[in-house]
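This part of the workshop introduces the protein records we will be handling. An example says more than a description, so a record of this kind follows.
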Amino acid sequence: MKGLAYIDADGKEAVWTDHKKRLWLWGLFVPTALFFAVGLMWLLGLGQTPLIYLAPVLWWIGPLLLYVILPIVDIKAGDDGENPPEEVMEALEDSKYYRWLTYIFLPFQLASLVAMCYFLTADNLTWLGGGLSLISKIGLTLSLGVVAGIGINTGHELGHKKPENERWIAKLTLAPAMYGHFFIEHNRGHHVRVATPEDPASGRFGETFWEFLPRSVWGSLKSSWELEKTRLKRLDKSPWTLKNDVLNAWLMTVVLYGVLTAIFGWYVLPFLIIQGVYGFSLLESVNYLEHYGLMRQKLASGRYERCAPRHSWNSDRIITNVFLYHLQRHSDHHANPTRRYQTLRSFEEAPSLPQGYATLIGLTYFPPLWRRMMDHRVLEHYDGDITKVNIHPRVRDKVLAQYGATATGEQAAA
């Protein structure tokens, strides 16, 4: 495997090799998993072997991958622990190999969505052992929802970049999940307000995921519209124009769903909506855990302190990092939003999650388990000072009383 040559701090020649270079290809397994599953089902169906009865399980390949396979492999594989040296950053950033891996995600994602519509409506699937049952159709839909959710993360990676083509690819990647406004809110909203009570996409201490989900969905939608409305007002333009990046991003979803409905019929529309809702719910579960309970403190000026590594939960689990383009190195992402995924670093001083995102997404659905695992970690991060924590208003008085504290100004106003 070819490495990058550089001169180290001692003036000596050295070579750094990205040991994950081939592993990054596994990130493309998610948008192609349906085709692997179908191929395997076809093989299982040869000769009508008894194994054909296992085939319907494979329509659930997305949830199986997300909730079972990835967590097991992630725990077994352990942490990465490797950061690229500063001297190779520029060359690593410029490598087209890493860039094309994110570009290729989109055509595979769209091909899988078309395949979903075909399998939902095909009259003759005897080559797969027969048509899909309702349970298999639900599994297929949720599998594409996983693709849509990971697709949002791919759009997140590209949406931070300056080249116009990458920003348009980002919007297209968000379209299947009906979440085009994320392109606006995340870049210009979340990155400004992260880890504050004003941020709809930062989870609060004591807030369940099921409380966070509608708050973040509605708050992000409202924020993205206001951000674009303000931008266009400065240009003396109405928000009701296709120059509004919220509207043109939503239009991509309308066109995509409209074309698929025109080709395959109205029957596919509810399934398209379900996969989209499930897809953006996966994004929101990640939003919830990335900053849970963490809060930037207010300065004497009344402004919040700058975002630092201590304001994001990190994980350096190697497998989830590969599938999510180093999203778990979240502190470096907030410090350097335009930095490409292959150059993101792991900070020792950043608070660490007990496992990778793949393992924790499912746990966010169960508030007692989540709070038992995370609340004490939040408190330990702040050396037991509950007044520094971003507390959910519903439990604020109870939590403060439990620790013998009173609300600070910003907590009382939140």
Observations:
- The chain has a mean pLDDT of 92.
- The first strand starts at residue 4 and ends at 7.
- Strands lie at 4-7, 13-16.
